[in-house]
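All the exercises in this workshop are built on plain-text protein records. Sequence and backbone structure share a record, each on its own labelled line. The question running through the whole workshop is how a given chain folds. The record below serves as our worked example for the rest of this section.
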Amino acid sequence: MQRAYSIHLNGIVQGVGFRPYVYRLAGEMGIKGWVNNSSHGVGIHAEGCQVDTFYARLLKEAPPLAKITQAECEETVFRFYKAFEIMHSEDDGLADVLISPDIATCADCFDELRDPNNRRYHYAFTNCTNCGPRYTIIEDVPYDRIQTTMKVFPMCEACAQEYENPADRRFHAQPVACSRCGPVIQLLDAQGEALEGLAIEKLAQGAILAVKGLGGFHLVCDARDSTAIQHLRQRKERGAKPFALMARNIEVIRNCFRLSEQEEALLRSPAAPIVILERKKESEGYLPQEIAPGIHTLGVMLPYTPLHAMLFDGPYDFLVMTSANLSGRPLIYRNEEALSELKGIADYFLIHNRDIYHPCDDSVLQVIGEEPVWHRRARGYVPLPQAYSKTQPAPILGVGGELKNAFCLAANGRAFTSQYIGDMEGYENFQRFRQEFASFQKVVKIEPEIVAFDAHPNYQTTRFAQEGPWLSKIKVQHHHAHLVSVLGEHGITEPTLGVVCDGTGWGEDQTIWGFEFLKGNAAGYERLAHLEYLPLPGGDAAAKYPLRIAYAYGKTLLSPDEWAKTQGLWEGLTASEQKVLDQQLERRINVFATSSCGRLFDAVSAVLGICTQVTYEGQAAIELESRAITWLHNMRDIYGSVAVEELLGHSPRYPMKWDENEEGLALKIGRTFASVMQDLLEGKEIGFIATHFHDSIAHGIIQTVLRLQANQGPVALTGGVFQNKLLTERVLALCKTHDIPVLRAKELPPGDGGLAFGQVIIANERCSSCV
C-alpha cells in the first residue's frame, strides 16, 4: 500500500551529506517526493510502498558525520510525485538547526591531493561533504554557500557539475572549489612582497612561517631545529609555555611517544585535536627540550587540512604548530592583522583569501584514567551542544570566568558552549569575547534574556553581565558552577558531593576558594569541607611568583624551630623581598586568605626548586607533575610497577589532618608541608617528594570524602586541578578501592572552560522556581 510521510529531522543534518544520502536512499527504494534544508533542520516528503522502512533506515544509516537529535514523522496527503528531488533551502527566520564543527580532511580528499592526475592535485582547499570547513566559515543558517565566506567564489562548470550530481561525494558540499574557481594561497615575505611556492625549503632552513589555517594563523617552524624554536620563543615572548606539534603521520608519533589505542583514535578522529602525549625515554634527544621546557609531555596533532599535508613535502617529520598571537592576546585570523602584528615574529607569511568568520583555536585533550579530558575545547567540536533536561523560562547566557573563558548560550533544553576564547585580562581579548558573543548568537539563533555570571566582582565578564540589558542577572559562585556543570553533563539533578580542586574562585566569605567539598545541585549547595585558609600575598597576582607563596605558607604553617631550618630554601628571594613579605604577613597588608588547591601545588613546586617564577598559567603545577611522573617512570624501569606501587604504600607519606568546627571540616596541611620540607632538607630526590605529595593529596581527598559521605554515593571530580593526570588517576584508583562511583566532565573541560554551562543550569533553576 502506497503512503505519504512528512518527515522532519534535526541535529547535525546540514553540511554533512545528509540530503545526498536521502536522495540516494530514496532512489534505491523507489521513494518519490523531495528533501530540503530549512531553518529547522531537514524536511522530507516521502511517498511510496516502503515509506516505513525508508524512515527506519534514515535514522539507522545516517552519514557518519550526521547526528540526529530530533525526529518526527507523520502521515500526510499523497501528492503523486514522479521523482525524488533535492529542493532549494527554506529560511523562515526562526532557525533551529545544529551546525557541524569543522572536519579534518578525509582520506578520499587526501588521495586526490596527492594524485598528479587529479584536477585537485596540490589544491589547498580540497574538501567534500565528508570533510572541510563548517563552523569557521558560516555566517548564518541554514548552511548554504550563500551563507558562508565561500559566497564570493562562484563555482566553475566542473565544480558545479559535482555539486549537482547526486552520485558525487561533493553533491551539495557547500565549500566545494578547485584551483580554477576557489580560494588561492599566496606566499609573502616580511615586507609583503609575493613569492613563489609554500616556503617549504625555507622552513627546512630554519625560517618561521605564519600560516593561515582553518580557524586562524599558526606560527610554524621545524620542530627539530632548536635555534628556530628559540627564535620563535623569544620573538613571541612565549616564556616557557609548551609549543604544540604537528606530525607527518601516525608512524612518526609512535616512534617518539607512548601511544595508546584511545589516543591514536583521538588523533585520527574527524575532529583531529591536539592530544597530549608522553615522550618515550629513548626519543628524548630527537625533539629538542626547548619545545616544552621542564615537561615530559607534548601536544601533538596530525595534518587536518590539505595545506598542512602539503607542508610535509619538506624534510621534517614534526613541525612546531602554535597559535599565532602576541603574548596574552587573542588568536590572529585576518591577513592584514597577521602581516601587521606578526611582523618581526614570522619571516614569511602563507596566506589565503578565504575569510574566517569564527576564529577557532585547536582543541586540546589528554587521556586521563581511560577517558579524554579537555584542556581546550574549540575546533572540531564547537558548536556541538550539551543537552539538559529542565524546561527553560527564557534563553540564558552564561558568561563564564576570567581565565580560559568560554561562554554558553542556552534555550529549549540545549546549551551551546563557545570555542575557547582565552583569558579576559587584556582589552583585545575582551573585545574578542564581545565579537564572538555577537556572531555566535547568529549561528545558534539564541538571544538571551537572562544572564549568569561569576561572583568575582572584578572580572571583565562580571561587569559585562551587570551592565547588559538582560531582564534577569544571576550571580553564581565559581565552584558551585563547576560542580553543576559536571552534574548537568550526566543529567543528575539530586544533591551530589563534589570535590572541586581549582586555582581561584571568589568565595561567599570574600576569600579565595579552590579546594572545596561541596554538596549540592542547581538549586544550591552546602560547603562541607575545604583546605584551611592560608595567606596569599598579592592575591591572584601571586600565582606568577610561587616562591613567595611558599614562603608565606612556610612562615604560617611551620613552628619557629622548623622555620629556622629552612632558611637556605629561600635564596631565590632577595633580602628585601623577604622583608616585604614578613611585613605583609605581620600586618596583613595586601594579603588574602585562600583555600586554593592550585596555589598549594604552586607553593610545593617552588619550594622544591622546580618552578619559582611562572610564565604561563599553571606552569608550576604542570612542572611539578612532570617531575613526579618522570621519577615514577624511572623507578618502574628499574624496579617494576608492582614494586613502585608498594613503595607508595597504602597510607600517605605526607598525611593531612582535619579540624572540625561549626562551618564543617578544614583540611589542615601543616604536617603535610613540614614533612615535605623535612624530606627536602634531608636530601630526598625531588621526584620522590613530588610523587609522594601527589599521592598524599589524593589520599587526603578520598579520606575526606569517606568522612563526609558514609553511604558512598557518587562523587563529582571537577576544577582545573583535575587536568593533572597523576593526581586524577591516583584519586580514581583510590575511589575504585573504596567502591566510590565517580562523575567527571565528558563534553567540556573540568576547568574554567566548562564554567559557563554550570552557570546556565543554575540560572535556569533559579528563574524556573520564580515562574
